[in-house]
TrEMBL record:
This is LytR family transcriptional attenuator. It comes from the Bacteria. Residues 130-210 form the Cell envelope-related transcriptional attenuator domain. It comes from Luteococcus japonicus. PANTHER family: POLYISOPRENYL-TEICHOIC ACID--PEPTIDOGLYCAN TEICHOIC ACID TRANSFERASE TAGU. Belongs to the LytR/CpsA/Psr (LCP) family. Transmembrane segments: none annotated.
Amino acid sequence: MQVTITASLLRVLDPSFRVELPALRRRSAWEPGRVLHVLTNHLPQTRSGYTLRSNAILRAQAELGWQVEAATRIGYPVTVGHLGNPEVQYVDGIAVHRLIPWVMPAEEDERLAAYARLLDRVAEHRRPSILQTLQPLIGVPIDHVAKVDFDGFKNMTDALGGVTLKTDEGQQTMNGTEALKWVRERKSLSQGDISRGQRQMQFIRAVLMKGLSKETLSNPAEVARFLDAGTQNMVVDDALTTNKMQSIALSMRNVGSNSIKMNTAPWTGVDTGPYGMSIVNMSEPQMKVLAEHLSNDTMGSYVDNVSPKSGFGG
């Protein structure tokens, strides 16, 4: 197979590529309980396992009382031969925004920028809030949000000189590419996504411990290199500046591994949802216990005896 790399694609792949999005700078205006899903394609124009699953998730959230909407990729469904579509199409009573430009840009960077701006307009109008998924369950405000992509994951790991993880073969030091593959694996693990989550928590702990080590924090150049590697491929809230990240890191310089607690949300088993999708059932009583410990800063004594330690529960 021959792949053509164009100049515009190289511009998109450049870590410095950015699109200014006004709505994303106004996070304080987001409305609680409102969710916007960004989809590649959707019903009724494309009927597949992915679109059926996406539609099932949208319907299930709507039935929980959330204000749910979706938006499909730029140009869809015109790009698959369906013309004359309204700007907003309703599927099972849920609004699906069609991001159709007057003229589809020919270059990859221009097309991605146009896609982002069209989606930004929907976000500015609807003002969704993804944080409401977790905050009502734990009753504790989430102060900061950071999202890192695969390149940022690999770069941050490599900037630390790799991380050491406990595997089935013993302790192994992995570089960014190796660690990314390890934390994404799930099919070969005994509890699938649950086991994958445990791997990811182990990785985060390893990064924290190495990033907070005296060797790293005592060397300003190492701290700057680590933060630079992550922030090039990271999206954060407005208040989480680079200086704030450095301040948080320095304030944690005396924090030991035993003082860092990581937990998954308590669950009772895997089931099939009302529209055929696979779901994990949350333990509501145990979630209340977790919320109480978080609120009282007593996570050191928190114990989860509810979530299955093997298999997928009942």
